Every structure is written in C-alpha cells, then in structure tokens.
C-alpha cells in the first residue's frame, strides 16, 4: 500500500551558506564556514549535510553563498555529490529573510514543499518524520527544536537550599531553533524582500497558528559550529559516538 504522506515530503532544499564565520577564525580566513571540517570526520560540514539530505530523499539543493563564495563553488563543482546542486550569490546583502527568499526562487519545484538548513549545523535525524509532522498539522513553517547542553556545570538544590547534586553540562531546559526547517510552497511569498524573517514572517505565522516546532528526537546528535571550541567539542562527541 502506498504511503500518502510520502508524496508530500520535500525532495528539494536550501542550504544557507553565506555567513562570515568570524568567530571561527582562523579556520574561515580562506574558506566559508560550511567548508570547515570537524576533525576526524573526513568531510566539510556542507558535505555531511548534502549526504544527509540525499539519504532523506532530497534530489535538488540550492546553496546560498556569500563569504568566499568562489571557494565553496569550486568545491561543489569538483566534489562527487549525491544530489544536484545550484549555487546563488547575493549581489548585495538582503538579510536572512531576503537571502532565503532569493535562494528559494531557484528551487526547481516552487509549487512543492522544501527543507532549509543553516550551513553550520551538524546533525542527523529523520527529516521524513519532521516532514510528516509538518503535513499533519497543515503548517506553513516547521522549525526543528534542540536542547543544547549548557557549557557549565549545574547545581541541584532541595527546597531548603541544600545542594543535592552537581550535574556536568546538563541539557538546557529551553528548546532553541535548531536551524533546520520544513516549509510549505506558500512560505517563500511570505518572506521579506530584505530583512530578517525571524522578526517578520515567523511572528506573523505564529499569530496565525501556522508555525510549529518539531523537537529533535532524544538521542539524535545536533550541534551548531560557531566557534573553534565547537569544532573541538564536536570532534570529541562524534568520536565517542563512532561517527
């Protein structure tokens, strides 16, 4: 029997890869942030993302380039890629929302849903399940939600103030935007021509109750690579997981 939800899952995606990556210097002095490699993985972050997207049924990807765009474009042209890739470069800064809209205009199927991911995210979970969650709720936009670990040790106390335990780097009690999305076809038209969609489009969709959050499943790996310390920590964590 054919799964009716499978036909509604995205086969196209946008990767936002235009950031300056200033907090990752010197690694980003000669390459954009998505081209940085986590030690021991054997592939840049974007290479991992393209493999993950292909495994989740994606066939076409638009990569939005910016900082050192030519370095990323050259790598994409020479690498053995599992998907068809198109690159776009903003002629002038459009902001996060404007840049996303500009890239989405190059998707091969504007009448179909699509995934998007920030170019500095290293994760693995079922995008198919996230897409089904999105469809079941008739969402226009669905954000993956993560609980990152707090970088400090936490102290647990009882009602009298006695310290009862010390917990090293516990998960945050708050969920954050994990930088991975599912969007319905009409989402692109809701994006600003310039500016930040998280200050305009997302709040409007939330008021309309068409914006949803999908918690990344417990045990799935997720990390944003923003600093040199993130690279070191990610290398240790992935090695421990045998990846």
TrEMBL record:
Keywords: Transferase. It holds the Pfam family NTP_transferase. Transmembrane segments: none annotated. GO terms for molecular function: transferase activity. SUPFAM superfamilies: Nucleotide-diphospho-sugar transferases. Residues 13-239 form the Nucleotidyl transferase domain. This is Guanyltransferase. It comes from Streptomyces actuosus.
């Amino acid at each position: 029997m054919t799964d009716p939800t499978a036909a509604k899952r995205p086969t196209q995606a946008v990767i936002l890869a235009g950031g300056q990556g200033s907090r990752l210097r010197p690694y980003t002095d000669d390459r954009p942030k998505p081209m940085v490699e986590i030690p021991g993985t054997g592939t840049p972050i974007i290479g991992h993302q393209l493999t993950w997207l292909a495994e989740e049924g994606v066939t076409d990807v638009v990569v939005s380039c910016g900082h050192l765009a030519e370095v990323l474009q050259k790598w994409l042209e020479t690498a053995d890629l599992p998907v068809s890739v198109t690159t776009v470069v903003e002629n002038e800064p459009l902001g996060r929302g404007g840049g996303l809209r500009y890239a989405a205009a190059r998707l091969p199927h504007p009448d179909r849903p699509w995934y998007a991911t920030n170019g500095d995210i290293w994760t693995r979970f079922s995008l198919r399940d996230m897409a089904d969650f999105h469809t079941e709720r008739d969402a226009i936009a669905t954000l993956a939600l993560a609980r990152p670990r707090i970088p400090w040790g936490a102290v647990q106390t009882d009602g009298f103030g006695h310290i009862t335990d010390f917990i090293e780097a516990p998960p945050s009690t708050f969920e954050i935007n994990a930088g991975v999305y599912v969007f319905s076809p009409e989402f692109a038209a809701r994006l600003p021509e310039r500016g930040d969609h998280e200050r305009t489009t997302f709040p409007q969709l939330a008021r309309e109750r068409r914006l949803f959050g999908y918690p990344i499943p417990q045990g799935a790996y997720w990390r944003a690579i923003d600093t040199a310390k993130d690279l070191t920590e990610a290398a240790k964590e992935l090695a421990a997981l045998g990846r």
